[in-house]
Amino acid sequence: MSHKSPITCHVLDSTLGKPAKFVAVELEQLTQDGEFISLAKGATDADGRASQLLPAGVAPLAVGTYKMVFQTEAYFSENNIQCFYPKVERLTASTSVLDEMCTSI
Question: What positions does the domain Transthyretin/hydroxyisourate hydrolase occupy (predicted)?
Fold first, then answer.
């Protein structure tokens, strides 16, 4: 049985109306220096899901700011579709707010 990564994503190609297969995905963390560093790299599967981004045994993520970078240019090129954005970055809010809400319940 495979482990479940605490961070997953599902990428859909709205131009085709189906999952985006084999899109490269990178998880990055914002450092105190204001730079993003790579924590993990992976790709979506045939269903457009990246469900094994963080390997088993990785320590829980610290409170902070993270982003996922989706390398869309290669995906669209592979599918002979003109690409408007070569990559898409999805920034997540600081997890400290969520942690505070959960501990105050």
Answer: 7-89
User: Range of 53's domain?
Assistant: 9-103
Can you give the pTM of this predicted structure?
Answer: 0.76
CATH number, position 49: 2.60.40.180
* 55 in any annotated domain: yes
pLDDT digits (tens, 9 = 90+) for 43-72: 999 999 998 888 777 777 788 888 889 998
What domain count does the chain have?
A: 1
* Per-residue pLDDT tens over the stretch 14-48: 888 999 999 999 999 889 999 999 988 999 999 99
